[in-house]
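Form 7-S
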Amino acid sequence: MNNKNGMLTRLMRFIGVGGFCFVVTLVVNYGLKFTVLEAHPTTAFIIANAVATVVSFVLTRQYTFQNQNDAYRKRIQAIGFFTVSLIGIAINSAPLYVSRWILGFHYPQVSFLSQEVADFISGPIIGTLLAMVFRWWALHKFVFPDSQKINLPQEPQESLVPSKG
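Output:
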């Protein structure tokens, strides 16, 4: 498979994993938001993203970047993935926080329906899109780089020219 097809395949797999994790995020978020964390929607969203991040790690490592899945780099990949994901969670949650607490899109300043529409657009839509772009770039650049780009120590090569003597 050439490099362009490989990149496109990884991108499509990344989007598929992201779509599945988007559903996980929504289920956990609304489960928490409408039960035990009614007064804390940003916290519910952060917890939902954390749960989806664990699912995403397994799927991303085993499916999206399976060709860059070197066993000796497993710990480095895990640390890098969760670091990138923590930044991604902050990026993902920021629009919801701004919508709710800076712009004031929360009940009773606006209707409950307006609050929920603003929450959905700001968190799961805008936040997820921003975080997804960041995650794709950072994961591809730092956590699961192409094998050819990794600078590994190489064994000395024998000279092709016979030595005199």
